[in-house]
Amino acid sequence: MQKNIIFCDDHSLLRNGIKNYIHSYSNFKVTLEGGTWDECKKIAESFSHNKNKETSSYIAIVDISFKAEYTTNGHEEYCGFEIIKMFSALGIPCIAYSSHDSGGFIEHATSAAVGAKGFVSKNADEKILLNALEAVSAGKTYIQAELVTGLLEVRDITQTFTKKEKLVAESLTIYNTNADVAATLGISEKTVVNYLTILYDKAGVKNKIEFLEKMGRL
Question: Residue 81's Cα: distance from chain center in Å?
Fold first, then answer.
């Protein structure tokens, strides 16, 4: 069965270059493309609305750094994570393809909450992307070898978080305040501050910005 590629990236020149490479050096075929949040959402909806459309023949390559205004705040820098969630929920395996290749980004992209089955840096040789496509097509996961050390470092940190600390960490964004986090979790603002002190210490950072950067959330 031919494997079809859904290519989601907001840089059309890069999409065309990678698409031509895939067509020239593999049996994969880029059959669907999305250059905006709305276009990617419409692709996902086309599978939801057409139950006869076979998702098992598709793999999605998704850039993390999409910019979109789909949230109530009107600002979302990395909606590629949300695109991966959409396709993963439909049973379409995704490869995160990004110039943001820190351990935190990889951990977040491949976490159960997001669901990517592979991660390749845009700085890598195109052959690495083909290797990822072959592995994910065979039902395996694939993390670019050079990125594994950074991923394991962040995973070692997150494994020290308690359940409540994880809830606080997952609720934290660049836009919300400690009071917002407290209201979301139903705890006091003072308790949030105490948890953040512990989280920052475990992650070896000094503030929220550094923490979000390390955890791949910024």
Answer: 4
Average pLDDT over residues 116-122: 96
Residue 29 and residue 2 in contact, taking contact as beta carbons nearer than 8 Å: yes
Any residues with CB less than 8 A from the CB of 182 and at least 6 apart, and which? 188, 189, 191, 192
Question: Of 59, 63, 136, whose CA–CA distance to 98 is shortest?
Answer: 63
Distance CA 133, CA 113 (A): 21
pTM confidence score: 0.80
Compute and round to an integer the Cα radius of gyration of the chain.
Answer: 18
**Contact by Cβ (8 Å): 82, 65:** no
Distance of alpha carbon 56 from alpha carbon 59, whole angstroms = 8
Look at 24-33, 57-66, 72-81, 142-151 and tell me which has the smallest mean pLDDT.
72-81
Asked if 121 contacts 88 with a C-beta cutoff of 8 angstroms, the reply is no
Q: How far apart are the first and last CA of the chain?
A: 38
Strands of 118-121's sheet in order across: 29-34, 4-8, 58-62, 94-98, 118-121, 142-143
Characterise 91 by phi-psi region: left (phi > 0), alpha (psi -120 to 50), beta (else). left
Distance CA 148, CA 110 (A): 12
CA 173 to chain centre: 15
Structure confidence by residue, pLDDT tens digits, 189-216: 999 999 999 999 999 999 999 999 888 8
Does residue 54 surpass a pLDDT of 90? Answer: no
* Cα(209)–Cα(214) distance, integer angstroms: 9
